[in-house]
Amino acid sequence: GQNIDQPTEMTATEGAIVQINCTYQTSGFNGLFWYQQHAGEAPTFLSYNVLDGLEEKGRFSSFLSRSKGYSYLLLKELQMKDSASYLCAVINRGDSNYQLIWGAGTKLIIKP
Amino acid sequence: KAGVTQTPRYLIKTRGQQVTLSCSPISGHRSVSWYQQTPGQGLQFLFEYFSETQRNKGNFPGRFSGRQFSNSRSEMNVSTLELGDSALYLCASSLTGTGSNEQYFGPGTRLTVT
User: Fold this and answer.
1) Which helix (H) or strand (E) holds A65?
2) Min distance B69 CA to chain A CA atoms (Å)
3) Residue A80 — left, alpha, or beta (φ > 0 → left; ψ -120 to 50 → alpha)?
4) Which residue from A24, A108, B15, B97 puts its CA 20 to 30 A from A7's CA?
5) What CA–CA distance (Å, rounded) separates A88 from A33?
6) DSSP class of residue A25?
7) What backbone torsions phi and psi does residue B83 show, to the nearest 5 degrees?
8) Portion 17-76 of B in contact with A at CB < 8 A
9) How confident is residue B111, by pLDDT bands cut at 50, 70 and 90?
10) Which pLDDT belongs to residue A99?
11) A5: DSSP letter
């Protein structure tokens, strides 16, 4: 079956670095997204990985290892506004269509 | 470019009633997906429409249905509402679907069933 696992909650300190992990099991992997969702708001796109390796975008980086079914989102120089939920989503390709499978999200709490 | 819009933003209904939610995608986007979000459950995929056709469907009962119009606007209908249907309903649009296109989410409709 299809499954995505993320930690439920993490806490980090302002200015520090945090790594949010995502492991997945799918039959037709075709890419992985990370989204950020602030409380009461809609998710917004952060990154997309389809090949192995690290994608860097400012303070945020995302890593993918397809052989291990593993990804992480790395947040550097944490700011209070980074307090949010981070959602991992995997594109699964079926016989005739694609479907996004979502993790339950990791709530990140930033402390001063 | 205007973002994804959803109406209404908030709804309160009673058990047994039915409800229709609306979503207008970003101009030029042909794919609209609907999700249910509840605390601790993450995003649960309902269905995806592309060019007025349902292309993908999640594991929700038949009480949940949708449609898409020629201008790509989409509606979702829930009949015979149950208390467990209380949730945030999000729609997301993308250019061609979930292959490799990022999805742009609307602000959601918060439905409360009493």
Assistant:
1) strand A60-65
2) 21
3) alpha
4) B97
5) 6
6) E
7) -55, -35
8) 33, 35, 40-45, 48, 55-56
9) very high
10) 80
11) E
| A74 Cα to chain B: minimum distance (Å) | 20
| pLDDT tens per residue, range B46-103 | 999 999 999 888 889 999 999 999 999 999 999 999 999 999 999 999 987 766 678 8
Q: Is A30 left (phi over 0), alpha (psi -120 to 50) or beta?
A: alpha
Amino acid at B13: K
SS (H, E, C) chain B: CCCCEEECCEEEECCCCCEEEEEECCCCCCEEEEEEEECCCEEEEEEEEECCEEEEECCCCCCEEEEECCCCCEEEEECCCCHHHCEEEEEEEECCCCCCCCCEECCCEEEEEC
